[in-house]
Amino acid sequence: PEAQVPNCVYKDKTTGEIRQNPITYTKGESNTRDIYLSHLEESLLMGNTIPFGTFYIYTHLGCGRQCLYCGGCRQVQQETFNREGGNVFTRPGEQVRKAIRAAKPYTTTFLFDFDTSDGDQEEYCREIWQGIDLTGHYCIISRPRKPSAALLELAVKTFKYVYWDIDVLTLSERHRQQLESSGMVKPQMTDAEIMEFLRQSGTYKNTEVRFNLIAGLPWQQPGDIDIDYLFSSHEHGDHLDVDALRVIFSDKRTALYTNTE
Length: 261
Hints:
The chain is an alpha/beta fold.
């Protein structure tokens, strides 16, 4: 019966009321092996096209940050998913490798989200990618900070093309620092780190960066908005959408960004 199922929200057949059982089941080290991709060849219809344009491979669960704009912050993790203190769980590498191999024939692009994890993840990514031929696939990597030079090189040599999805919130360093010091957002990059990442990425032809921005954050000043427009105007809006500034590297564009320092 529904009343005995952990984490279950159901409609009482007698009273018609919506009931919610306690959140007692939490996915982690002890039970993550029980849930995995399998038998995709039996459940997917293969025609002349690949079923999935982008396939998300989860590597982490939970988050210990309390970012003011995020629906998956520490408080939500505790109240909704019973993850005390956010309780970040890192999925074992062999399980991720198994999922990549299972999904590989059915997608053109893999999506990895490292927003909930600390550290560079270079060794972890090497573990989950090494030995699997992914040179015919695209990759999207979501991160709160720039990757190390080692991770950047590993990714561009592993995949056909790599998109970096980086949360910088605002292109104003002053604004980022004030938000970070308040504890309202995750640790932020400095302008020097952003410029270094742009220069490093510009040395590769098969990578692209998207900065995710949020308008109207607390303590935003007119000068902060001017800096956002300064960066975006150099791209003439070609790769600017509602939530992100996308930079495609070329000698000309990299030079324009260097001049904004």
